[in-house]
Structure formats: structure tokens, C-alpha cells
């Protein structure tokens, strides 16, 4: 039990550090808008050859009209956990292949839709939405205190959750 509480403490500290980094990041972006930015691909490094949507609204529209599930990745550039997950996600050939069956969106900011933060606004977190525009809160990772968080070591669980999101689609719609 000691080890488990230590682990959840650690995850909590990680979450706090990412949350603090998030506030700092917000201030910087306001100042940065005056400088010309280099064009950044919508993938932000999560899979440069995949097709990514630009906004949550566009992603919902595309999901509904293509009948493909939507995968949303919330992350931050200055969060080491987001960076670590991004690296394994981008290098995982099976995930990259399976991702082609989804409408994809990665966000470095929070949307106003509370459904996208069922248990809080931590990063990285990954949620699936089906084409009826229902957030699949039942597709979760392995951490009870952060249901939609994935660590690099959870990449095979994420892969099977992606398969689950596609399977549910076929049986339910």
C-alpha cells in the first residue's frame, strides 16, 4: 500500500508541476503573438504524416460527417510528460497506422467544453469522442486519480483503447 500511495503522490506532484507550467506558458504566448512565428504543423510532432484538425469545432464537425471517432490529445510543450508521451506516440508504427482511422486533434490549450475534462484539466490526457458526439468517458487509462492520463509505458494500453474506440463504433452506430 505504501508504494501505491507514493506513486499517487508522485503523480499528483507531476500534475501540479505541469499545471504551474501551464500558467507560465499562457503569459508567454500573449507576448509572442507580436513576433512572427514560424508556421507550425498541426501535428505538433504527434504524427507529421497524419491529418490533424485545427479546432475542436472542426474536429466535431468532421467526426460527425465522416462517421469516424475523434481522438483528442491535450498536452503542453513545456510539460516533460507530454513530451515523453508524444515521442513514443509518434514513433509507434501501429499507433500511427491506426490513427488514420480517427479524426485527430491535439490541443495545447483547454476548450470551454467541460466534457473534455471529466476529472480535471491535467496533461497529457487523451479522450475519445464518437460520431454521435458523445465523449467516451468509459475509455480510460490505468490511473484512478487521472483517468485519461497515459505514461510512455502505457502505450500498448493506449493502442488497445484506440482499437476499442473503433470497435464500439461498429457495434453501436
UniProtKB/TrEMBL annotation:
<dbReference type="GO" id="GO:0005576">
    <property type="term" value="C:extracellular region"/>
</dbReference>
<keyword id="KW-0256">Endoplasmic reticulum</keyword>
<protein>
    <submittedName>
        <fullName>AGR2 protein</fullName>
    </submittedName>
</protein>
<dbReference type="Pfam" id="PF13899">
    <property type="entry name" value="Thioredoxin_7"/>
</dbReference>
<dbReference type="GO" id="GO:0005783">
    <property type="term" value="C:endoplasmic reticulum"/>
</dbReference>
<keyword id="KW-0732">Signal</keyword>
<feature type="signal peptide">
    <location>
        <begin position="1"/>
        <end position="21"/>
    </location>
</feature>
<dbReference type="InterPro" id="IPR051099">
    <property type="entry name" value="AGR/TXD"/>
</dbReference>
<comment type="similarity">
    <text>Belongs to the AGR family.</text>
</comment>
<keyword id="KW-0964">Secreted</keyword>
<dbReference type="GO" id="GO:0002162">
    <property type="term" value="F:dystroglycan binding"/>
</dbReference>
<dbReference type="InterPro" id="IPR036249">
    <property type="entry name" value="Thioredoxin-like_sf"/>
</dbReference>
